[in-house]
Fold each of these.
Amino acid sequence: MTKVVTFGEILMRMSPPNNLMYDQASSFDVTYGGGEFNVAASLVNYGIEADFITILPQNPIAECAINTIKNYGVGYKNILRKGNRIGIYFLENGIANRNSKVVYDRTNSSISQIKKGDIDWKLVFKDADWFHWSGITPALSKTAAEVCLEATETASKMGLTISTDLNYRSKLWNYGKHPKELIPKLLAYSNVILSDIDTARFMLGLEKIYPDYANDILIKENFEQLKKMLPNARTIAMTVRNCISASHYKIGGLLYKDNTLYRAKKHDVNPVLDRVGSGDAFMAGLLYGLVKFPDNLQKVVSFATGTCVLKHSIFGDINRVTKEEVLNFINTNGSAKVDR
Amino acid sequence: MTKVVTFGEILMRMSPPNNLMYDQASSFDVTYGGGEFNVAASLVNYGIEADFITILPQNPIAECAINTIKNYGVGYKNILRKGNRIGIYFLENGIANRNSKVVYDRTNSSISQIKKGDIDWKLVFKDADWFHWSGITPALSKTAAEVCLEATETASKMGLTISTDLNYRSKLWNYGKHPKELIPKLLAYSNVILSDIDTARFMLGLEKIYPDYANDILIKENFEQLKKMLPNARTIAMTVRNCISASHYKIGGLLYKDNTLYRAKKHDVNPVLDRVGSGDAFMAGLLYGLVKFPDNLQKVVSFATGTCVLKHSIFGDINRVTKEEVLNFINTNGSAKVDR
Amino acid sequence: MTKVVTFGEILMRMSPPNNLMYDQASSFDVTYGGGEFNVAASLVNYGIEADFITILPQNPIAECAINTIKNYGVGYKNILRKGNRIGIYFLENGIANRNSKVVYDRTNSSISQIKKGDIDWKLVFKDADWFHWSGITPALSKTAAEVCLEATETASKMGLTISTDLNYRSKLWNYGKHPKELIPKLLAYSNVILSDIDTARFMLGLEKIYPDYANDILIKENFEQLKKMLPNARTIAMTVRNCISASHYKIGGLLYKDNTLYRAKKHDVNPVLDRVGSGDAFMAGLLYGLVKFPDNLQKVVSFATGTCVLKHSIFGDINRVTKEEVLNFINTNGSAKVDR
Amino acid sequence: MTKVVTFGEILMRMSPPNNLMYDQASSFDVTYGGGEFNVAASLVNYGIEADFITILPQNPIAECAINTIKNYGVGYKNILRKGNRIGIYFLENGIANRNSKVVYDRTNSSISQIKKGDIDWKLVFKDADWFHWSGITPALSKTAAEVCLEATETASKMGLTISTDLNYRSKLWNYGKHPKELIPKLLAYSNVILSDIDTARFMLGLEKIYPDYANDILIKENFEQLKKMLPNARTIAMTVRNCISASHYKIGGLLYKDNTLYRAKKHDVNPVLDRVGSGDAFMAGLLYGLVKFPDNLQKVVSFATGTCVLKHSIFGDINRVTKEEVLNFINTNGSAKVDR
Amino acid sequence: MTKVVTFGEILMRMSPPNNLMYDQASSFDVTYGGGEFNVAASLVNYGIEADFITILPQNPIAECAINTIKNYGVGYKNILRKGNRIGIYFLENGIANRNSKVVYDRTNSSISQIKKGDIDWKLVFKDADWFHWSGITPALSKTAAEVCLEATETASKMGLTISTDLNYRSKLWNYGKHPKELIPKLLAYSNVILSDIDTARFMLGLEKIYPDYANDILIKENFEQLKKMLPNARTIAMTVRNCISASHYKIGGLLYKDNTLYRAKKHDVNPVLDRVGSGDAFMAGLLYGLVKFPDNLQKVVSFATGTCVLKHSIFGDINRVTKEEVLNFINTNGSAKVDR
Amino acid sequence: MTKVVTFGEILMRMSPPNNLMYDQASSFDVTYGGGEFNVAASLVNYGIEADFITILPQNPIAECAINTIKNYGVGYKNILRKGNRIGIYFLENGIANRNSKVVYDRTNSSISQIKKGDIDWKLVFKDADWFHWSGITPALSKTAAEVCLEATETASKMGLTISTDLNYRSKLWNYGKHPKELIPKLLAYSNVILSDIDTARFMLGLEKIYPDYANDILIKENFEQLKKMLPNARTIAMTVRNCISASHYKIGGLLYKDNTLYRAKKHDVNPVLDRVGSGDAFMAGLLYGLVKFPDNLQKVVSFATGTCVLKHSIFGDINRVTKEEVLNFINTNGSAKVDR
């Protein structure tokens, strides 16, 4: 039985209902989520034990976040309670030709003020097999980046598999460093890497760009270039997202291992109910696949992509479909019958 | 003036709002509907008198169902009030690549405990010209199947036209019989049959299957095969539904009479607001057409298909568009202007 | 700095939520809007000063309309308060194959009872550069048509640019005149004309019709014909709307000036969140473009069309996107990324 | 079996939800009601047949009102469909120390433009035993007052019992007459009169006023004075309402017949969920009592008062409690147990 | 550390929002609760470990109930998954003078079909110190009553403290037995009994009745009489509820042990937000007090009563206030300041 | 004509709807308010010009706050746009015996990082007659306290009347100073002081306490003691609030000037719809009264108290009743009739 630990920030998410703009809404829908927690919740949903590590303040709003973690069955015992505030983000959901807008209000959140030594990583990783973190956390603050390094070093020493979702957020990374200065160093320990093409380009300086999804040669060149920069990365995956409009995406996925490229079918997603967390869903699907059917990498990338596709039809940050539903989706290519 | 009697179950329907999943919703939208009632309500809406026969318990929730029947102008005077409970079904509305999910909670509903003799069919059919029932009712219980036979025999003797929608529900039919043992016997009296291709295959053992909507020869072979099994069926119709996703269907319709095949234009339905009851809408459109313009069978199948298409844009089980709107839709092919 | 004055009716708009039909809703969403006010609000949003002239009664509901005007930053100081009632319209939002339905309840609204002399146009137009009115106002009543003439004559004398949106509403125009008797006379002063092809045909008797958007020669013939009828119209624009369904439009735009035709790219709008006011958004975009970049008429028509397209994604009558968002949309052709 | 006919206006009612003020609400709750219709609906609820006479326009909003009438089981076959509009009223629900506010938008409603001869009263009153009208209708317009007289004269000739609720609305009565000029003449035919003390004072010029509910002598003097002015009034009743705040009332009732005064217990109503229609509920309770237990006038006034009290706990204009619930309430003095 | 096991039914609860009546609501609020689960959830909230034993079917609606149990931190590992359906109850919330109405739809629920041997009570009670059940469970079915006996016998043998809330529901108990035939036998093992006065009278045949809360002598006679019938009952408690209206209660509590009567202050509860589960809250408070401060019985009854009072201000079946809030409430007598 | 300037923080307020607890709500109602802004908005509502000074960041959420300020007609031109974030507070509305809970999330808000020199007070106070600030602002940060001093010194020099609401918030004041060290120094310039008794005791060290509202002598001693500490305070007022429960208050008001005590009638407020901002409403009423009828101090205190009472019936932070409604309330003592 695999046990996964994920580390990062869980935020309060506020969004105007019914595709209203911020200033039109007299109430905001409230949920809680965050990249690394979303991965943990999705894994528990698939039957894999997962623990989430973060710092949250002592107040009733943070309590709501704790309850969300509990409700998804994710381990919360090692969460620290201190500091000023829980991070918040506002999400104005776009529709048709109007894009979504995110406003972050994460400054001075408890987790951004984390310091080395705050978390007892040896205790955290006891009994764990896998550690997952993402590029969001080192963007929060200098000390958060330091703790990422502390965590990966410990995890590596203790023999855990380490996975990372690059997850670039341009509105964070404000403390004076370009990701390129930090990220490659932090990724040195990572065995599984997830990115999308723009993030890889920006955070790692990837040079090539594949012009279309069908061109195997160019795509492989990209992956080979990435592979060279990431010595321990045995598996590299990419989400591919074509945005026809804010309501219509085409979603595909790529996986590269041992010089072989695996490619999932591209799916239409129309309409998009909620796009936040779809990358985290992919990550969880990837991780689940690598644990459960590591010898069938085509199935792994199809499963991860299927999870990602289905996440777009679920309100909130977190994938809630079962693994059976994903398998059924990729097997039947999603027949839309009412089951009755 | 035609008077139609329909017989079956009316259920409470509960569904999470805004495409939420069951566990995400803190309230459920409540409506009332059921295949045979939906047909009656749609007919009254089109100006044809209709009575609905069922059994409902004596409690305030069943009272809400009675009020729904009243509000649609459907005759309710012959409804029996006894037994334990009204059937319930839960509907999780799918969207994009996530399918809808139905949970039935119909066990021991008042109507499932119906027995021969409970309904005075001679009284019920007095002044009536048409009797409609569906394949859902004999699936409820052995005694319900017996009452279907009792009703059809009486209706037949009294000279009523009998129509049947096969309407297969895999989650019912739990009492030890396969539909094939019962359904052909029950259908012996039916003059008008509605089915979709999968139901016909399953409930009647139809062997051929038409590979595409445009292939007249194969389609006709199917209908001829059906015709042989159903001695009294003068008119056989089929709904054709391609599910691109849970939000996008293509809807067509076929009608077969006197060895002639009539085919309605296929329409895109996107997005699907509510797909439940669209087959019942087709049935009502078919019945209306056969009564009002029996000599124009092309118009009949177009009208039935148009009703079915438009139903997908209406919340709840029941078609609420006027006949003028359907005619306008099939004539103009649905120009989407705001009328102002 | 340009100051625009618009004149017309602001109405209370009531619409069933969630695409319900009128009779299914137990609450109606309430907003306030009206063609000429919508133009003013959109212009203020783009940074151009605008005043709105109307008549509203003295009651708390009219107060809500006044507050809407205030909240959009539109000048309201010259609004008269008298008469019986604010006009109301009900809007049932269509979806997929079911069309929207508008019910007007504007009879005897305060503005419809306006009389010559009620408004001190000289005062109103002091410091103003531009006067905008639409074909809705003369449809309200004979006296309203007279005041339109009074206003345009004064504006013309005072040297203002005059723009008109023909905006035909078949459900108004009930007081015994066909628009053709009045409209050409009223348009004699207009320098900028907006219409769609059907309106132009009906209200002006346009004879030619362009069969497709790509046929330059026929389109130009139409514009030339229009030009002949409208001696002062230096700029004529048209919105082009293909309605695939109530949820899916294709929107384009044409501008004709100095014998040259400018054409904006056609955009898919899917789904349509709210189509009311999209013509007013085009008008405001056109006006903004003519004021801010009069020498780049291609950009003007693209900007107007982009405004119109984006309006379809905003609840309520009024365009709320910024000019930067429109420019970004027409430059990037609407990439649908979440900005975070 | 008694059959009652009531005549008046049914209006669309719009009110901000959750005790918001008009300008704070982005949606309004929609219901339909009107004094005389409310009486009819309440009577049908109690098992007495009732018909409602009014005029409504031909549009989908009026259709919603028709459906409301249908849904309550009230006869609607003699309703005329013509004219411009359905009357509307807006209701801002007060709470605690903030009072409710009503805005009428009834001008030019279809019913206000009624003329003598529009209704075939002989047909309407065929099979009827009782005619009920209220002081609201003659306030609508001069012609509406004339039709009231026409109706009462016909009803009187045809031997119907006539009841009237004085129901003064200061915001109506704008067409140049003081009620005192009209009302006594109209009341000449009425056998049952309902009023509250302020209305009686204003519309009939009642001079005495009872200083407290317990003072029999003064109260009786009031009734005797009334009696003298109303030659045919065999039964006179009064609702007594003490408003502690917008959320807390004390409700009592008085009935005077054959020189005897009957007085119902005063009840606390706290909180008031919806006070509109509580007088109509009293009227219906009074009428029901006079028909069903005319010899027990103490029970009649208690039943009417109980209906009135319970109406305050029901959303919308219309009393929906059963007669059994009213009887249980007056017998047990309202024990507030959950029945389970 | 104490561990409590409770056994019973968890139901889906559906109630119209905003004090609407059943037939007025187009959506129902959905929560999950049930007497014995409510006690367990409240105990976990107070920091005492608790397990809940029940039977639920395998379907997505039952999954929602399981999630509720999980979310409250109550142990759910020993819950059986089989049978047809989860029990449902409908709750129409009364207000002011209109009472609440409950409709049960529990027939054939999975738990009602429980049989001896279904639950491995020895496993369930391993590590447990306390077993709690209520009078609702034996009312469900004959076999459920048998399992109650099976459970209490095992618990008793294994040395657990047993508590019982008599909890009479007149709408259950339909299988042919009067509670008096069963209940005393089942109570023989109970050490802690909770009842209200009416239930004690009905289910045990209590003869005396205390006429007022202040009369010590009569109250004690009641308790002594009870004590004689219940040989193992060391602690007997009573909730006292005066219902001024559906919105206003007065709540007190009594505890009787070792011939001594303890009485909590009576509190006004106004308005009542949600009265369901307030008895269960009392029970949990009682149990908590008996475990945590057994030597201060005055504090125990005050704490139980305070919990009960505060529960009335919380939506849903389950008490969610902390023990600190209860203590603060009983110490300060509930100062209603905003803490900021 | 008086022009008032107020200075402080405007916050985003988020509160669960329908008296739900934080963790029960899936959406939060959103409004914007803050003590000093609330005073300004209330004054504009009463017809007095007012400007609000604060600092807000550049983001769409702060834009919503700006729009709120605009919508209330308060001057916003001198508001600075910089810094990280808008302050947020969460409000869980209590009911009956459960108290409200406020969670502040104001740390590092833009206004808390204000520095001397940020605001050009000479410009701000040009044309102004009155400056209002409150005890909340110096609690935000050391620099905010310094700016308060800077503002009061400038206002004083420029001859403005200065008013202060002491407004103690225990959850703020975290930067190492007790209010007593700062507040008296800051109050040296204030001419009008508002407090409640607890705040006065805490922030100024008031020794006496009046035991009941009716004891003139003790109350006057309190005021005299205050007067001695506040050399420039010509007028001192107090709000008196008895909290019967979270839903029921009794509200009174006191005013002390020239050694004379004026006392307003105490009013019951039941139920309390929204208590936030009621002190600010009192302050605005006080200020309005002192400006408009300074010679009738009894009317001043009654008006301020009436405003405060009525605010409790309005959702959101801000008083929206007109001055006519307040006058009517204090004259009629709040008759709760529907005006129709």
Amino acid sequence: MAKGNVSLSVIRRLPRYHRFLRELSDNGIVRISSGDLSKRMGLTASQIRQDLNCFGGFGQQGYGYNVKDLYDEISKILGLGIPRKTVLIGAGNLGRAVTQHMDFSARGFQLIGMFDTNPSLIGQKIGGVEIYDSSLIGEFCEKHHPAVAILCIPKEAAYELAAVLISHGIKGFWNFSHYDLTIDYDGIAVENVHLGDSLSTLCYRIHELECPNGEQRLNEQPPN
Amino acid sequence: MAKGNVSLSVIRRLPRYHRFLRELSDNGIVRISSGDLSKRMGLTASQIRQDLNCFGGFGQQGYGYNVKDLYDEISKILGLGIPRKTVLIGAGNLGRAVTQHMDFSARGFQLIGMFDTNPSLIGQKIGGVEIYDSSLIGEFCEKHHPAVAILCIPKEAAYELAAVLISHGIKGFWNFSHYDLTIDYDGIAVENVHLGDSLSTLCYRIHELECPNGEQRLNEQPPN
């Protein structure tokens, strides 16, 4: 199992290993060498060995990795498949798209309710999940005890609702808002998705291609 | 202006500085010390000074940073506001949500067309932008010369269309697909948004809160 002091950059690569291994497995590939995996993933073989060694390493000299075993091991490390009741706050365009686009159950997230302040949305169902009035979130949490909240609301609304959600036992946030929960709260798990920041980073990368000393910096871009 | 060898982690923080500075400016704050900015952003003052020094540093001893000047300087560094014709591929739930949710023009991206293979979507308009048949993308590029493509399509479709788009001069990709363009192409700017990987990372972080040696690793999570 995982050793301590694993860097965030290694953790961030694990879901990608997981994706590639899933594909290999789906294609009937039983085992793979770190060299072959590195070509497919655009990483060096030593990088892959280093990454996986952080978690004890699963490769065998001369054999490589057993695809299914490594996939299962990374699933365990990531904590995938552990059932977690989840609510989504903000059933606007983004919230609805996230609901319809993501396979929550494959990772153990059970979406049990969506919340919005827009009367025209309340009562609707998206993928079989009902949209409730945001004012009922506390009551809902007391009754159903969700552990995870997906925030698809503006910063101000996120700031107000985070306090309520945390007071009702929510410990994990998939945060699409620009409110940085980690500044105000400890002991919660937050994964931010700042689409605006990502788009600005793309701007930088395009600009970098065009500007004189860009090449130097481009090399530092890992295939993320 | 920017010096070479700026690490990706610094670059990734720039859009966040930009966001906070915009808020400060909107709230009529003219200048701010690195200490005050660090409290608001959950970074250390020295971290902020280090980051901004990568680009020459803009602070003045005893004065701090001029909010508007620093905001404008970071805008320049990020290449925001430079007009770039942009197409979006895949007008499904995610593509439509991205179109309706993001302020492209604020960063210089001009969304001039959307593309899909679904006949029921072709001809529709989202936010005034028409959805065309994906088979016409090459023709469209020859005529309008977009520089950026937003990929909201599955991996296989992204693999096929990337070749077409790059052959027609697209040099920047905001990539929501799981196809890693950087493995097959050099000299393009790619910013990946892997929502599935992000959700898996949230899984890990929640799991980490629950598992014994989690605390140790949690400390490495920056407010991203």
